[in-house]
Structures are given as C-alpha cells and as structure tokens.
What does this fold into?
Amino acid sequence: MDKYKVIEVKESIFADNDKDADRLREQLKEQKTYLLNLMSSPGSGKTTTLKAVLGKLKDEMNVGVMEADIDSDVDAATMQELGVKTIQLHTGGMCHLDADMTRQGINEFGTEGLDLVVLENVGNLVCPAEFDTGAVKSIMILSVPEGHDKPLKYPLIFQVCDALIINKIDVLPYFDFDMEKVEEYAHMRNPKLKIFPISAKTGEGVDALCDWLRNEVKEWQK
Amino acid sequence: MDKYKVIEVKESIFADNDKDADRLREQLKEQKTYLLNLMSSPGSGKTTTLKAVLGKLKDEMNVGVMEADIDSDVDAATMQELGVKTIQLHTGGMCHLDADMTRQGINEFGTEGLDLVVLENVGNLVCPAEFDTGAVKSIMILSVPEGHDKPLKYPLIFQVCDALIINKIDVLPYFDFDMEKVEEYAHMRNPKLKIFPISAKTGEGVDALCDWLRNEVKEWQK
It folds into this structure.
C-alpha cells in the first residue's frame, strides 16, 4: 500500500457553503460513495472508534478515511497501518472543514470505487458543527470522561448530528457519568438523535454501530 | 451572595487584538488584579480544577471567576455554590474570547478589589489559543483520558501557555497514557512550560499548583 498523501486544504473562496455542500453530495450520490462526517472533542477516541468500526467493515466494502488535522499525521499513520486507504488533510490552523475543503480532499483522494469514506473532522465541539461539509450524515462522539452535561454546553453539535456515539463505557465505574441524563439532554437538543454506547477499546456496542452504518451505505447506493 | 450576572459579549470591532490585550493588562496592573486565562478541551475538568484551587485560595485572597460559555450557566452555578464571585459570559456561538470580549466581562464584573480572576475560556483546543485575551498568564488543562499525543496534534495552545495542568491522574491505571511522553512532546512545543500533574477530584498535586498561582499573584501586585 502506498503511503497516504498529505494535502494542505485552503479555505473556501465561495460564499455559499450550503450550496457547495449540496453540490458535493450530488457528486457523491452519483459515484455511490457514502461520506460520513465524524466530529468530537480532542481525545474522545475518534481514531480508536474508526479502527474498531472499519476493522469490521473493510472486508465487506471499500472504505477510506480522510484525516483532518491542523498539523500532524499521527492518525493517518494509524489508519494506514490498519490497511485502510487514507489521506491526510492539513487545515493550516483552521478549526473546521467547510464543504469546499472537503471537496478538495475528496478529489485529491480519488474516491471512485469507495463505498464508504469517513471524514475525521478537527477535534473541536464548536466550529465544525457550524459548517455543512457535504457529508451524507454527521455523527459525533462524546466520551464518558468528558461528562454528561455536554449537550447543555455545546448545543449546536448535538442538533446537527444524526447519531451520537458514547465512547469509553468501559471506564463508567470510574467517572460520575449519568447515562440516563446524557440521553435526556441529548434528546432535548435533538429528539431524532440515535445513540450508540460503545467501548472502542473492548469492542462492546461496536456491532450495533456497524449495523447502522452498513444499512446507511446500502440505502445511499440504491 | 447575589446571583451571578449573565452578559452577552460581542465580537470586537477593533482590528488590533494584541493592542487591546496590552491595554487590558495595563488596566489590570493598575488595579492589581491578576487575570488567568484557563483553556482546555470540553470535559477536561476546568470547573472541578477551579473548585479545588479556588476552594483553597479564597480564604487568603479575593478571587473571582468569569465563566465563558456558548450558551449555558452550568459552571457559573457551580462556582457560585462554592461562594466565589462569578460572572457568566455568553459568547453567542463564538468559539473563543478575544481581548475586547474579555474587557467587556471585566468591566461588567467589577473586578476592583479582586486579587485573582480566572477566565474559564470556551472548551476548545484550537481557537482560544489564537487570541491574546489580555490575561497576565495562560494555563491549559490536558486530562489523562484525552491521550498523551495532544501536543503533537494541537501545537499552538501548548506554545502559548505558561503552564500545563495534567488532570485526572487518579485514572492513570485505566488509560494508555504515557506521562514521560506527554512531557517530552509538550516541552518540544514549549521548553519553558511548567507542568502540574493533578487530580482535581482527589486533590493530589493541587497544593503545588496553588503555590505557583499564589506566587504569580504576589509578583503581579508588587
């Protein structure tokens, strides 16, 4: 496998991000590629979750990962080791990706033939939520050590996501984290939000997440 | 104690944030108030750390807290319960505070007579690091569950901070967190960075942090 590319994405020159996002989704629909936008705080376990999920899905469909980072290749190297087609996007200090930056990544990556591409967005609960990346769906991770009050403090990201992964449930005994409360607060922000409690480390709950994603890809490719 | 005020801070109309920041520092020097800018990811334990530190310092000096949040009063209510003078700043969706927003907070707060004010910045490792708030020093928290690779992935915040708190050391046995590596990576970004490993929950390491802060305030008031 060739080493992953690293590209420097530039801020969009287009004013209308929502139109850009719609155009990108049309392109993805045509080529039957499902793009999933994955958002979270730094350190919630995005990369470990991707390893767990894509480790299971990569033998049944063609998968790829776009790693967006301000300035490192740590995660791209990890995904490459897993044998998943990977590209590293450097945002040059930018705190989020917009649809045009995502399109630059998609076009450089060469996603024809890929069934599923996951965009690992910059670790940040605020800014990435403000921009439609052009992905088919958005999903976020909240990890147990971060606390169950996060839907109260970062409302927008819970509103714009289709699914919420609650990661690191293996350490629930060591933290004051109330699973009922987090579900209540999250559904207060977004009643349709699907919730998947998992431990990416032990594998608990990962099958349910894979089932959902497998079905999402199938529906998109119809 | 009166209930804390909640104010909506507005984005600065001034172009030169660095000059604003210097002006605010001059004002603070004159009134002998030490302003500490506290930054971290969501969920790293900023509020719990403040409870542990200010719980110790509040009987020997006049302390206050400015809680910056996008849209909630959760942390302000917690600090108020501790008996610490508190103001809540709402950023209206903004991912950071600049010097003028901080000044609006300081002036509304009425910080005359306060020796130490802590600004709890928006939970975010990216954007707050880009703006000098006018604080005397900046400090950040990285918590054990976030992982030791964060100085590689979020370089700027480690560069601009004067001290790094490594929080949640009580859960070290349950995470793959390498204390030597995090110190090596952090010092690679900033050789002068002071590092305080603590558990805000159990109180371990908090005294050393209080000693540093007490001395900082003393030097500022000379």
